[in-house]
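Reference record
================
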Amino acid sequence: MVAAPAGLLAATTLALGLADGGYFAGATAAATVFLGMVLVLVVASGATLAPRAAGRLVMAAFGALATWVLLSSSWSGTSARTLIEFDRVLLYGFGFALGALSLGTPRATRWALRLLWTALLALSAVGLLSRLAPALLEAPASLVPQRLSHPLGYWNAVGLLAGLGGLLAVGLAADRREPIPIRAAAAGSLPALALTLYLTFSRGAILATSVGIVTLLLLGRPRGTLLALAAGIPTVGLTLLVASLSPDLIGSPALDPTPGGFRVGALSALVASSFGAALVVTRGLPLEPSLPRWHPGRKLRAWSRRLLLLSPILLLAVVLAIVQDGSGGPSSQAVQPTPSERPGEPRDRLTSIDSNGRLELWRVALGSFGAEPLHGTGAGTFARTWVRERRDPFRAQDGHSLVLETLSELGVVGGVLIALIIGVGLRAALAGRSRDRETSSLIFAIALAWTLHASIDWDWEMPVVTLPVFALLGAASGAIGPARPRATRGDRSRRVLAIVVVLLLLVTPVRVGLSQQRLVEAIGAFNRGDCPRAIRAALGSLDILSQRSEALEILAYCDARSGRSALAASVIAEARRLEPDDWTLRYATGVILATGGRDPRPQLRVARTFNPADPVVSRLLRRFESEDPRVWRREAAAAPLDVPLSGGVRTP
């Protein structure tokens, strides 16, 4: 039974990975409901652990953050997006609580590490198969096909996922307390995880993983380090060398070098390296006691601890300095692909120092924070802020920095709560080294690598790489021992209260998940031209969650298609009431008015003020420059529906 919560956590991580990383609202809601029910069962069983002060503080901070997110709907002008962000905070809070209440014992923590490593390895293997054996597993089209993005849909997230898996593999392979099969399998997985990370060409993930491995070796000083390094370094090096010499592997995944669609050279090197690494561990175990112990000097360890404690502050200072330095003009990298993203030259990216558009994103986030420093613009509103303030017409949904996007959306209050959650969790993991140096150091290294990467990317929106981190921090922050075997009346009352609170909190993700399912069905039917089915599904989505402006948008377009322009105008007006600052609804209003022969230009001008850099609105305005209703109708029929009718298409 001790491995059951860890197994359920790993299964959730695996399911999220196969559902686009859990990015979309439906997957997040389903995972939240599942983990919430697991938490209810854990609390009801009476076998929970007694959380330490750090664990209680972080759980309280998660509760405060979730409350602040809900409150932000009063000033954000978008209640539906607020509920989606609330579900995400709830998911991570449930993951932390599960770790604190059921994974804090040494045995349970070790099971969590093993099973999470297995889940991350499985997801990395799925991605590798899409590149090494495309005939067996064909990946969906990617925005940048030269970079491995399957199965998460985003290459940098795949890189971080493989990096965290690699950290777990190093920690397990170097831990002499682990069974021989676990150590051998962990070492054997290093070539596959390293190759996955390499094929994403993610500079941030490579850097974060490197920092994590160095942190683990300096702070944890695992007793099996030398054997793990002897198994991993040459085999990983061989795999990466063969991959770098395989242009068919580095180039477009659509190119099949053999009739069977297998990249034989790289696949053979990977298999040989994996078996070789496992063999080194199994054969080297009898010699391990005679090997010198990995023991960095005391001064090196002291300096490393100081640097690690200061690293979040230093990173934030560097980010702010870069943004300040780059705020004088638009970033040319925002609209032009970097050299590493051009076809045939993906490896050049690893030596490039361009920001790839992040400077502009960070500038907008900081400007938004400066305008509303206390409470921000509201949860889920960065995409709206971006289209209004950007200088370059590339699309983005997220701020590519957890710190800056939180400050933009939730102000100082949200920023302090996020810093408290992460900072206390890291500090607790570091303090846990007095009880179990190797395990606590591994958790700290994983959380530090995630924190560094989340500071420059949107990992918060990818639960597959974020949920495991908070669950492990919960385990590190959680327990000093089991709860009293004979519960008092007060204990039972607290458990009942906790169960009731969790069940009440689950109402929101249940509604969001069911509404999202109907909305996706409506979007699919609309894109196929099946308006009767789209209308039924959209109405079903609104019956469950009336704040979904996307469902109202679909209804309005279908009404306009069927000639009910007056009804369509009233429906889209209701959608605008829910999302008054959404430019797409103003655009839709203009198109719908034009189909009924009414002047669309006033609404399109408002849309342009909300989204001045987008050429679509300006182009359509020029085409509507006429006083003839027949021209308006004709141009409306040909107007592109440049609106979010795709279920949330992800743009990096």
Q: What stands out?
A: Confidence is low (pLDDT under 50) at residues 252-260, 321-344, 481-485, 645-652. The first strand starts at residue 49 and ends at 51.
